[in-house]
Structure formats: C-alpha cells, structure tokens
Amino acid sequence: MLRLPSFTYLQPKTFAEALRMKGDAGTDGMYVAGGTDLYPNMKRRHQEPRVVVSLAGIRELSGIEKREAGTVLGSGVTLTALSDSPTVRPSYWAVAHAAELVSTPLLRNMGTLGGNLCLDTRCNYYNQNYEWRKAIDFCMKKDGAICWVAPSSPRCWAVSSSDVAPVMVALGAEYLLVGPQGERVVPAGRFYHNDGINYLTKQPDEILAGVRLPAPDGWDAVYHKLRRRGSFDFPVLGVAAWVRWEPGSGKRETRKVSEARVVLGGVASYPQEVPEAGIALKGTALEDESIKAAAEAAYRPAKPLDNTDFDLSWRKQMTRVYATRALEQLRQRANTQPLT
Questions:
Q1: Which of 162, 113, 120 is nearest to 141 (CA)?
Q2: How far is CA 179 from the centre of its chain?
Q3: CATH number at residue 329
Q4: Burial 40-53 (b: 16+ CB within 10 A, else e)
C-alpha cells in the first residue's frame, strides 16, 4: 500500500494568509485544492512537501460569476459543479463537457478547475511508485538525469493530460494569478510551457485564483477526447476546436468562419495550438474540404511519443480523425443552434 509521507497541513481563509504560509514554508511548501493530483503524487514521492497549504477555505475561489464582459470561474470550483452549472453549460458547453469527461464522479466531486488546469504532466516512466522508478535509475522529471522516452533529449517529454486546459486555450480565456507581488492576468495560451518539468509559467508562490471566459459573441467550441476506457482514463489525445462566425443574415449554413483555433492535448507537454488549422478554416463554411485541410494541418505537428497508452503511430493517426469529428460537430451545431 502506498502511504502519504508526514506533512503539516495548513488551512488559510484568505489569500493573504495562504501567501504568508507558503512564503514561510518556502520550497518545502505546496498549495493544494482538491488533492486528486498532489496526494497520489506524494504517495509515489513525486512531490514531497513538508507543508501543504490548503486553498479549500478561501471563499473567493469557489464562485461562478456572470459579468457583462464574460464569466469568471473561481479556480476552486469542483469539476462536478462546473459541468453541472446552469451558468456555464448553456454558454460554455465545451468547458462543461471537458469537465464532465475528467476521471470518475468521485474524483470530479473533489477535483477542482484550478487543479485540472495545473495538472502535473504524465509519463509511463514517471507515474510509477518509488521502487519502480528506482529500478530504472529514475528519470529526468524526478531524481534522475535521463528522459527514458528520448534518452538523448536535453528536456523532459512528459505529456500534458488536462482536459479543460485545451478548451481554455481555444476559447482565449484569461487566468487570474495572485502572488506576493499582487495580481496579474495571463492569457491561457501563455500559461503553459512545452516542457515536461517546467510546464507552467505560474510561479510556485502564486495562486491560480480564477479564469475569465470571454462573453458569448458569435462563437462556438467543442472538445473531443481519446482514451482506452470511456471513463476514468486520462486523455491520450484531446482536440478542442473553436470558431467565430461572421455576422450576417439569412441561412446559418451560408455564414463563414471569421476566426478559428484548434488546440491539441495529450501530444505535447502543453496544450498545443495549431495555427495552420485555424487558417485553413478561415473564410469557409466548414465544408468537407476545409475540414479535411484543417485536420491534416493538425495531424502534421502532432508528435505523440511512447510515454502514454496506445501505439504512438496510431495515436498520431487519430489526431486527424478526432480533429475531423470535432469540426464536423461544430458544423452540425452551427446548423441547429442560434447564434449568441
């Protein structure tokens, strides 16, 4: 049985208290929200904080607020609350759908939006117990010096496995960070690094306080997820597709795409936007030819490695398939739902 190491558990009620507690603990301290990622990692000795600062008691993190400029989601909102929210689901269906695809109901009841957005990167050589990793002389991400996926590589290739993060990048959401130096706002696309170890631009002492979603304004988004089982498993591929339709009158199917984004999850150490796919869709009505071109554009830069489930070459082929399905769903939604 894997057991948690000994640690001190602190329960601040405000941002100021949390920041002070983390500052006092220094590098020995870590924040925790739902704990569905950190605690299993602690059991496997991936992270070994001596002080754990809980964010669960900070009220400001648990709200969902609709504003004129959009909607603000507290990072402490559980994935269950996010997927069931009457504020989120009608206007931000892709966000709610991605949240409900995470893991199991029990873990969604505990896991939070912020936790999923900051999810530790994963790898077959990393997500093992301490004795297993010791037997291979560990890996670059923890205690070792070699990336066993690509032994000659100077960097870690652990994979971003968040379901909600690709959607946030596709939507152009903004993240609110609170730290010792005050608040700052970071676009979702600039919150992530393509590095399995340093995968966030957030500083260790900063708190991801909330997410600002843009107001519904002629756009729509969907998310598709590939995994071995229809529940529980992490994605080995995620495709978030977003389009903004040109304003106009007449039949919906005659409207053109003014902007588009396609973002891949599970194929790199960060949610990977493919600008060429968006360019292929611009000015089209999502006809079969434009969808095919965009799916091909998404396929080309996808470089899944042998560090998650399934054969890597098959996973790369599925990038084309899942991008096509996502864009076809957007086309179907465009023809059946009114513009916001």
A1: 120
A2: 21
A3: 3.30.390.50
A4: ebbbbbbbebebbb
Give the dihedral sign, CA 95/96/101/104: positive
Cα–Cα dist 293/276, whole Å? 9
Is residue 173 within 8 A of residue 212, CB to CB? The reply is yes
DSSP label at 60? G
- Whether the Cβ atoms of residue 118 and residue 95 lie closer than 8 Å to each other: no
Domain membership flag for residue 284: yes
Task: Count how many domains the chain has.
Answer: 1
Run of H or E residues at 177? strand 174-179
CA-to-CA distance for 137 and 132, rounded, in angstroms? 9
* 292: in domain: yes
Tell me if 207 sits within 8 A of 219, measured CB to CB: no
| Neighbour tally for 329: CB within 10 Å | 15
Q: How many CB atoms lie within 10 A of CB 128?
A: 16
β-pair partners for 260:
243
Q: pLDDT tens per residue, the chain (340 residues)?
A: 899 999 999 999 999 999 999 999 999 999 999 999 999 999 999 999 999 999 999 999 999 999 989 999 999 999 999 999 999 999 999 999 999 999 999 999 999 999 999 999 999 999 999 999 999 999 999 999 999 999 999 999 999 999 999 999 999 999 999 999 999 999 999 999 999 999 999 999 999 999 999 999 999 999 999 999 988 899 999 999 999 999 864 455 578 999 999 999 999 999 999 999 999 999 999 999 999 999 999 999 998 888 999 998 999 999 999 999 999 999 999 988 765 5
What count of residues does the chain have? 340
Domain extent for 340: 217-340
Across 11-87, the runs of DSSP E, i.e. the strands, are 29-32, 51-54, 64-67, 70-74
Give the C-alpha separation, 261 to 66, whole Å: 24
In a domain, 153, yes or no: no
Q: Does residue 313 form part of some domain?
A: yes
